[in-house]
Amino acid sequence: MFPKYDVIVVGAGHAGCEAAVAAANLGSSVLLATMNMNTIAQMSCNPAMGGVAKGQIVREIDAMGGYSGIVTDHTMIQFRMLNKSKGPAMWSPRAQSDRMEFAGKWRQMLEAHPNIDFWQEMVTGLMIKDGRCVGVHTGIGLEIESKTVVLTNGTFLNGLIHIGDKNFGGGRAGERAATGITEQLVGLGFEAGRMKTGTPPRIDGRSLNWEAMELQPGDEDVTGFSYLDTPKPETQVPCHITYTNPEVHDTLKEGFHRSPMFNGRIQGLGPRYCPSIEDKINRFAERERHQLFVEPEGRNTCEIYVNGFSSSLPEDVQYKALKKVVGFENMKMFRPGYAIEYDFFPPTQLSISLETRLVPNLFFAGQINGTTGYEEAGSQGMIAGINAHLKHREEEPFVLKRSDAYIGVLVDDLVNKGTKEPYRMFTSRAEYRILLRQDNADLRLTPLAEQLGVMNIEERVVRVNAKQEAMRTLTKALDKLSVTESQANGYLESVGSTPINQQVKIMSLLRRPNISIHGLANVIPSLKEEISTMEASHIESAEVAIKYEGYIQKEQEMANKMNRLESVKIKEGTDYHRLESLSAEAREKLTSQRPRTIGQASRISGVSPSDISVLLVHMGR
Predict the structure, then answer these.
(1) pLDDT (tens digit, 9 = 90+) per residue, 370-390?
(2) Closest CA to 125 of 133, 114, 116
(3) Residue spans of the chain under pLDDT 50
(4) CATH number, domain 567-618, options 3.30.70.380, 3.40.50.150, 1.10.10.10, 1.10.150.570
(5) Is the Cβ–Cβ distance between 420 and 347 less than 8 Å?
């Protein structure tokens, strides 16, 4: 009935979709198995992509040939570039998407791929032969063979939904949990744990008083996510902001004794940086209000997502409290918020390729690894899909360094440090964030995708080459141009910058804060002519490279120094217990996690600099 596939991907959430695309784009035959074809790429939580550090990840996925950025651009209803008042390392794109169109576009693009097949059924177990994964078992008793398997089960593994005193099995509202896989993996020797996440209630937008809330429009300049020429919305749908108040808090507190978070029914750890509303009130008792973002689920629906009001309190308490929020006085609820507990597997059980160390040919990606967020899931799916393809072809795994991408930081953190709570990406996690900007993901990663042999990468490569040439041309032109006092001083004073008293090079002015190429072009005709035919993104990247040249160079030198350790490979099968100069903790951790390089070993929790010195001496370094 089935051919033997190169890669089977289990689960069609954000991780599963990107895993399927990544393997298929490299030429693998892929089967995408899901319990429900109608929920492919479902936005289970908020209808948005990107945000601080997450927007950089979406652009990195796009630069490697993934689909998340393309789908987001096709379906966005609002776009904002966050943190524009800060340095460019912090600029982060974020978009509200039409939730139904987002899932529909993903399915359309997946179905258009000739290397991807589909099967709608629960996968209940793995086929293991001689200790290796060779396929999957399904709920109706089918055995489907493959060379590699990628598990992207999201919140479905023994998922348990909590609403107040009630709890019931489910991987998402209205969908059943997945069973069988956890039990088999634990039997094979894997360590499993429980995590928790939550979602807010969904509200009828027709019942809200929009005039009473703050308007939050999108940016006038919609740059989007993809480096390809994707469509942008002609009109945007605004979001709104409102706030809780002491009366709301008092009402919520009345239900605390019925909260599964506070009475011990929920055992899993929740995301520290996206707490439920009851957790916020409990942890930040001194605050009189908390911000709520009122976000539309799409253009053609009245369904509203109340970002900031995630809750597992009883539905009557949620309803009563929300009615006391400004603008929500006549609110009608579509469904209450809920918490969900699910199984995950500590990611220190994986190699840097996201292949499990216990069972060869088996890869994990997404929330099964203890992460939270669509973007984090999608990036892991892409890496797992690439490496599943390379594994069955017996090629070296593809590894992004911490200085290559936020995705490299994410995978490195998970595999070497693990996580005790749902892992979310922040710019602060990346030590090379000036290098890892949202504007240069294409320059960093598209050449790597070309080397891998990703399908249909040619247009991206042409665009990268054109961008690099435009940046070189503009930099050379700026290096030759000068500006006089009469030309520049009016502009300089208007932006609060010190006037000049003699003719100076434009480059020296451009390195000042608040000075932009476009601002200078308004007073220097030759510069205006120079940039008149250039793409805005090319101008922006050139400006950032010029302004922060010293910082970028210093960070690159630091990265190069650290990357020397990444090139020092540790011999496979090294017996760390024979190296008596290592600390006992280092021997235990190194034996357990089997790092590929000295650089990776240096980032394992419990391995000290002196332990690294011992390893280097042992290796003759």
Answers:
(1) 999 999 999 999 999 999 999
(2) 133
(3) none
(4) 1.10.150.570
(5) no
